[in-house]
């Protein structure tokens, strides 16, 4: 098993738009200048943080939880 995932794979897994996911990643897991413009490779740490973030957003937006 690999410890990395692409934004497209992760977005599909957690049910969010890849653009929203990349925005979250840019804000919270800034990449080094030399890799900007290259393919994203998301670490396990960043993927887990994104899963938690977007799960919380869905929970907070669910009227059943209000």
Could you characterize what this model shows?
The protein is mainly α and 66 residues long. The chain has one domain (4-65): Arc Repressor Mutant, subunit A, CATH 1.10.10. 56% of the residues lie in helices and 6% in strands. The chain is built from three helices and two strands; from the N terminus they run βααβα. It has helices at 7-14, 18-28, 44-61, and strands at residues 4-5, 42-43. A two-stranded antiparallel sheet has the order 1-2. The protein is globular, with a radius of gyration of 13 Å. The termini are far apart. The mean pLDDT is 87.
Please give a quick description of this structure.
The chain has 66 residues and is mostly helical.
Low-confidence regions: none
Number of strands: 2
Helices and strands, in N-to-C order? EHHEH
Radius of gyration from the alpha-carbon trace, in angstroms: 13 Å
CATH class: Mainly Alpha
Oligomeric state of shown chains: single chain
Most strands sheet? 2 strands, antiparallel
CATH architect. name: Orthogonal Bundle
Which strand order does the major sheet show? Answer: 1-2
Q: What number is the mean pLDDT? A: 87
Give the domain tally.
Answer: 1
